[in-house]
Amino acid sequence: MNDKLLVVGSVAYDCIETPADSADFILGGSASYAALAASYFAPTMISAVVGNDFKDSDIKRLTARAIDLSDVRFDSSKPTFFWRGKYHKNFNSRETLDVRLNAYENFVPQLGKDAQGAKYVLLGNISPEIQAATLDLVKAPQYVILDTMDLWITTAAESLNNLIKRCDLLIVNDSEAKLLAGTQNIICAGNELLKSGAKTVVIKAGEFGAMLFHCEGFFVVPAYPITSLHDPTGAGDSFAGALAGYIAGAGKVDFETIKNGMLAGAATASMTVESFSCYKLEQYGIDEINRRREFIKNISKI
Amino acid sequence: MNDKLLVVGSVAYDCIETPADSADFILGGSASYAALAASYFAPTMISAVVGNDFKDSDIKRLTARAIDLSDVRFDSSKPTFFWRGKYHKNFNSRETLDVRLNAYENFVPQLGKDAQGAKYVLLGNISPEIQAATLDLVKAPQYVILDTMDLWITTAAESLNNLIKRCDLLIVNDSEAKLLAGTQNIICAGNELLKSGAKTVVIKAGEFGAMLFHCEGFFVVPAYPITSLHDPTGAGDSFAGALAGYIAGAGKVDFETIKNGMLAGAATASMTVESFSCYKLEQYGIDEINRRREFIKNISKI
User: Fold this and answer.
1) What is the distance between the alpha carbons of residues B200 and B255, in angstroms, rounded to a whole number?
2) Interface of chain A against chain B, CB under 8 Å?
3) Which of A26, A45, A74, B206 is the most buried (most CB within 10 A)?
4) pLDDT tens-place string over residues A135-182
C-alpha cells in the first residue's frame, strides 16, 4: 500500500475554439487535467492510454510535475483520444464537433504493482466500464472518488449506479446532480443521491462554487471570482483532481479534510480556466494556488 | 429625519399556480414582501396604493408587524394591482397569465411628513418612474437601495440608469446583472455595474446565494439550503427587504453591516419561499430567522 493518488481517466488531444481564441492538439482529457491539479498536493499516478501521436513535450509536461506515467499504456497502432469542441458566444454552451476514441477503443486497463497498492483513487471522467475495470485492479483502496458526466448518466445508468455504491465520494455538477436525482432542487438532489447509495456528494456549480453533502453536515465553498475566462475545458477535472490530491496528501478523509480539499479544488480550477490546457496552472503553481485558497477562505467570512 | 425604513413598491393580489398547489388573491407585491421581511429588523413604512377590494385582514397582517401604512393610498375607484402567474414543472420557469395595474394606473406617489424624513429608502421592484418620483419626495435620504427586474432593464433602460446613479446599493439577480452589464461572466457583470455608476452592487443567485461588489471588497453569502420550495414568488423582494431593514436597524452602512444585511436577506428569503405569500415567515418569525442566520454563517466556515 502507498499514499499515492491513482488518477483514472482519459489523456487526450483537444482542438478547442472559444469566442476569443482557438488552439489545436493541446493536451487534454480528464486524467491530464486531474493529475496536473492533484500533483500540487500529492504524489500522483495516471492510468490511461495514449497513441502513436503522443508528443514527448507532453510527456515532459506531466513528468515535470513528477506525475508517475508507468501505468500509461502506449498504443502504437492508433492515435491518442481526440476531441474537437466549440464554445458558443459568451461560453453559454459548448458543442462537440468531433470525438474519436482512437487508442481507447479496445483499451483494457492494467496496473503495475505500485498502482495496485494505491490507497487513494480518483476515477476521473471516462466510461463507468473503464472506471470499474480499473478499480477492480486496486487491491485495497481506502478512499475512492468518482467523477462523471451527463453522457454516462443517460447512456450507462446501471453501470454508473453500481459504481457509485463502491465509491466514497461522488462528484457531479449541478445539472448532472439534478438529472441523476430526478429533482430540480439542488439541495434535494444532493440529499437524494446520498439516499440512493452515494456516501458523500460534492455538487460543482461553476461560478457559484461547490456544495458538500456529508453525513456530518453541509458545506459550501464559493468560487474564486475570475474575470478572465479563457477556456472552461477541464475545470471540473481540475477541481476533482485537486480535491483528490488534497485528501491523499493529507492522508485523512474526515469532513474538515474534504472541506479543505474543495477549497484546493476551487482555487486550482479557477487557474485552469484562465488558459487553454493547464498552461496557467503550471506557470503560476502552488504559490498562486495558496493565495487563491486564502482569498476564497475569506470571501464568506462574516 | 427618522431612522425608519421607507419601502416603495407594489401592494398586490396574486393568483399563483405552482406544480403542487395554487392560491387565489393572496397578498403579494414587492412592497408587501419587502416590508414584511424588513419589519423584523427596523420600523418600516410603505408607500403604495391599494384598491377597493383590499381586505381588512391584509391590513391587519401588515399592521400586526407594526408596518406604518400612513403612506398607502386607497383608490376607491379601482381594484388592487393584480397578478396571475404560473410556475412550470420543477419551477424551471414562470409565466405571467394576467397582469392588471388597476390602482397603479394613474398613481402619483405622495408622502407624509414622516416618510419625507426617512433616512433609509428601499425602492422595491416597480417602474423606475414611480421609484424616482417617490425618491424625489424624500428630503434627505442617507442610504437608498434599488431593486429592479428584467422588465425595466429592457423597457425603461434610460430611467433606470439615471436612477441607479442616485442610489447607494443596486440589487439585481444573476440574469438581470448579465443583461444590464452586457456580459455573461457574473464577476465581470458586477464590476461593470460598479464602473457604470452603481456605488455598490448585490447580485442574487437563488439557490446559490448572493454576491456583494463593494469598494472595500467582494463577499458571497450562501443560500440557506431549503428542501421544501413551495412558491418562489417574493424571494427577491424579501431578500431586499430584510437587507434594507437590517441596514436601517443597524443605523450603519459600512461593508460589514451590508454583509450582515445579506445574511439577514438570505435567511428571510428562505422562509418566504416555503409558503405562499409570507405565511411561513410571519408564522416562524425572528427566532427562525436568527437560527437560519447562524446556520448560513457556518456553512462556508473552514
Assistant:
1) 10
2) 90-92, 183-188, 191, 205, 207-209, 211, 218-222, 225-227, 229, 256, 259-260, 263, 297, 299-302
3) A45
4) 999 999 999 999 999 999 999 999 999 999 999 999 999 999 999 999
Strand partners, B26: B14
Spatial distance between the Cα atoms of B193 and B188, rounded to a whole number of angstroms: 9
Q: List chain A residues with CB under 8 Å of B209.
A: 208, 220
In sequence order, what are the residues at sequence separation of 6 or more whose Cβ sits closer than 8 angstroms to the Cβ of residue A184? A178, B90, B91, B92
The answer to whether the Cβ–Cβ distance between A227 and B299 falls below 8 Å is no
Our CA-based measurement puts residue B114 at a distance from the nearest CA of chain A, in whole angstroms, of 34
Is the CATH code 3.40.50.10900 the one for domain B2-299?
no
State yes or no: ipTM above 0.85: yes
Contact indicator for B281, B268 with CB cutoff of 8 Å: yes
A219 vs chain B: nearest CA distance in angstroms?
5
The angle subtended at Cα A36 by Cα A159 and Cα A162, nearest 5°, is 10
Helices marked H in A182-273: 186-195, 235-250, 255-272
Structure confidence by residue, pLDDT tens digits, B22-52: 999 999 999 999 999 999 999 999 999 999 9
The span from the CA of A178 to the CA of A196, in Å, is 13
**Which chain B residues are closer than 8 Å to A226 by Cβ?**
185, 187
Instruction: Say whether A300 and B221 touch across the interface (CB within 8 A).
Output: yes
C-alpha cell at B236: 427577491
d(CA B267, CA B289): 6
Cα within 13 Å of Cα(A87), Cβ side: 22
CA dihedral A105, A106, A112, A116 (to 10 degrees): 80
Work out how many CB contacts closer than 8 A connect A with B.
77
Q: Are B60 and B266 in contact (CB under 8 A)?
A: no
Report the gap between the CA of A69 and the closest CA in chain B (Å): 34
